Amino acid sequence: MSLWRAVGEENAAFVLLLSDAVQRSPQAYLNPLGVGAFHLLQASKNVLQFGLYLDAMCVNSKYIAEPWWVRLDEFGPFKDQLRSDFSQELAKTFLDRGWAFIAPPPILHASPGDVAIAGGSIGTFGAPVQWDSAYGIVTAGHVAGPIGSIAYTAAPGGKLQQIGSVVFSRTAAGAGPRGGADVGLIELAGTMPKGWAQSKGITAQALDKVDVQRNSGPAQAELKGMYAWLAYPNTNIVFADIYQTDTAITQQGDSGAVAHHKGTGDIVGHVVGGTGTVASYIQEIDYQLRVIAAQAPFANIHL
User: Fold this and answer.
1) Which end of the chain is more exposed for a tag (fewer CB within 10 A), N or C?
2) Of the candidates 224, 272, 270, which has an alpha carbon nearest to the alpha carbon of residue 245?
3) Cβ distance 35 to 177 under 8 Å?
């Protein structure tokens, strides 16, 4: 699981323990939208903190306009629940290093006006890949839509130009409490160009900078950390292995855009959504490719 590489084995183990507790008693933890580990300036400590993403609409309306990180030990009911779910030592760890990110709920970033047009929503094309003698482009699953859908891009003058078809698609809808992938694969027509898909993937760390290649131009942000899973309220969509940026650098229509590591140029993942003006969410590339590769026709897919 990519979480282990992104936040370290010990932190990942703590995240999964907290995640299990949340899934056993979600209401006791105010039905969080996600559980992860993050580097927080508010903590003034050079260690990752454990975070719950709480929906501001269910906690306090003031956080809708001013999202913020708040210590878990400021929520009285959490103290008793953590002490009930864990040993005294573990409960103390979560209270000492536990925070709640209170903000409006995330939304999918897809809307008319962007270049990737397939059977789902309209979004953005991502990283180039190849498998066997075929080649294509990765995007978000909710952009790609059903397998077999024709994929288009916007040609000069606004006309649509057919470029290929969707050969793989997952949307994370119905993925269950552990989450799933939101990834689509579009096979391109014609002969594969020389030098296609020679990028590398990388598991980023908290405080790493990323460049997101949006249709409107590149944008840069810093990663705070990664959620083991992130749920979208009022849907059955749950994503696994999701980075959160320190500020919002994407908007509707940017779903599927590729994020590059600022230091190496390697591929970190693809945009799957965001929270207003607060943060953008990027699903980790290694996880996405492993999900695609689990299907026999794409067993050797690579960047």
Assistant:
1) N
2) 224
3) no
| CA pair distance 101, 127, nearest whole angstrom | 30
Q: Give the C-alpha separation, 103 to 93, whole Å.
A: 24
Q: Say how far apart CA 204 and CA 66 lie, in whole Å.
A: 27
The bridge status of strand 267-275 relative to strand 279-284 is: antiparallel
Distance, CA of 73 to CA of 83 (rounded, Å): 12
* DSSP structural state of residue 42: G
Coil, strand or helix at 54: strand
Crossing angle of helices 76-85 and 9-24, in 10° steps, is: 100
* Whole-number Cα distances in Å, 229 to 23, 113, 148: 11, 29, 29
SS3 call for 98: strand
Q: Where are the domains of the chain?
A: 2-103, 116-197+289-298
Q: Is 24 left (phi over 0), alpha (psi -120 to 50) or beta?
A: alpha
Which three-class secondary structure state does DSSP give residue 93? helix
Euclidean distance between CA atoms 182 and 272, whole angstroms: 7
Query: Number of C-alpha atoms within 13 angstroms, CB side, residue 117?
Result: 14
Instruction: Note down pLDDT in tens along the chain; length 303 residues.
Output: 689 999 999 999 999 999 999 999 999 999 999 999 999 988 988 899 999 999 999 899 899 999 999 999 998 889 999 999 999 999 999 999 999 999 999 987 764 434 677 766 677 889 999 999 899 999 999 999 999 999 888 766 667 888 889 999 999 999 999 999 999 999 988 888 787 888 899 999 999 999 999 988 899 999 999 999 999 998 999 999 999 999 999 998 899 999 999 999 999 999 999 998 899 999 999 999 999 999 999 999 999
Class for domain 116-197+289-298, per CATH? mainly beta
